[in-house]
């Protein structure tokens, strides 16, 4: 790659309130990042994750992150299109829909890092990219990087569950809670789901039931059941 590519991005200037320290700007993508194992990605969707906001606010600044060097680009998860691949890249093709799994490959209990996805273009090591089904809608695809793996881990890595077992969870209408409901349904588990009194509504319950929830209680109902 001989020419410099310019990319619009959300750049973080320092720790602080995200709306005060984030700016929209255009930056050059260094062509020297290109090599035979790289891929040129055009990012097309990325959520504003609570994790992103907390990192920008400095809540994790005592942990090693690539936010310790400013300015930097924000964003931990998203979905993009492969526009070009290096000569040594065989698991990706131009036009593939991909997510960046670098957050999971490089992370451990003492390190939180951004994938710097809030940008139009980037050159990325291909081994940190995972291709996904193009039929997945972009909203779902853009949020595959964090919530589903956490939900999967909670169901598989702590207690050996058998088909027909019950799971009790609070915050059932959170992103992770909703994912747990769907995975549990697929695995044959039953779910008892707690929601906050102030968030309780017929439409919310109907949504959770449609996703596979077995039982739903608000906090007051549940307390009355167990006392």
TrEMBL record:
<dbReference type="InterPro" id="IPR013154">
    <property type="entry name" value="ADH-like_N"/>
</dbReference>
<dbReference type="Pfam" id="PF08240">
    <property type="entry name" value="ADH_N"/>
</dbReference>
<dbReference type="GO" id="GO:0006631">
    <property type="term" value="P:fatty acid metabolic process"/>
</dbReference>
<dbReference type="InterPro" id="IPR011032">
    <property type="entry name" value="GroES-like_sf"/>
</dbReference>
<keyword id="KW-0560">Oxidoreductase</keyword>
<dbReference type="InterPro" id="IPR051034">
    <property type="entry name" value="Mito_Enoyl-ACP_Reductase"/>
</dbReference>
<keyword id="KW-0521">NADP</keyword>
<dbReference type="GO" id="GO:0016491">
    <property type="term" value="F:oxidoreductase activity"/>
</dbReference>
<protein>
    <recommendedName>
        <fullName>Enoyl-[acyl-carrier-protein] reductase, mitochondrial</fullName>
    </recommendedName>
</protein>
<feature type="domain" description="Alcohol dehydrogenase-like N-terminal">
    <location>
        <begin position="36"/>
        <end position="99"/>
    </location>
</feature>
<dbReference type="GO" id="GO:0005739">
    <property type="term" value="C:mitochondrion"/>
</dbReference>
């Amino acid at each position: 790659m001989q020419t410099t590519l310019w990319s619009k991005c959300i750049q973080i200037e320092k720790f602080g309130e995200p709306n005060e320290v984030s700016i929209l700007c255009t930056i050059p993508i260094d062509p020297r990042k290109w090599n035979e194992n790289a891929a040129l990605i055009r990012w097309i969707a990325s959520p504003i994750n609570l994790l992103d906001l907390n990192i920008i606010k400095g809540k994790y600044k005592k942990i090693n992150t690539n936010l310790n060097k400013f300015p930097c680009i924000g964003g931990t998860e998203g979905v993009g299109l492969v526009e070009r691949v290096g000569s040594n890249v065989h698991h990706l093709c131009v036009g593939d829909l991909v997510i960046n799994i670098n957050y999971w490959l490089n992370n451990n209990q003492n390190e939180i890092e951004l994938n710097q996805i809030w940008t139009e273009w980037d050159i990325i090591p291909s081994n940190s990219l995972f291709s996904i089904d193009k039929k997945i809608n972009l909203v779902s695809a853009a949020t595959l990087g964090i919530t589903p793996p956490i939900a999967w881990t909670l169901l598989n890595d702590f207690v050996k569950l058998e088909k027909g077992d019950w799971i009790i969870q609070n915050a059932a209408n959170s992103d992770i809670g909703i994912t747990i409901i769907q995975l549990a349904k697929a695995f044959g588990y039953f779910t008892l789901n707690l929601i906050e009194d102030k968030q309780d509504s017929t439409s919310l319950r109907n949504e959770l039931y449609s996703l596979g929830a077995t039982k739903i209680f608000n906090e007051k109902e549940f307390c009355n059941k167990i006392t």
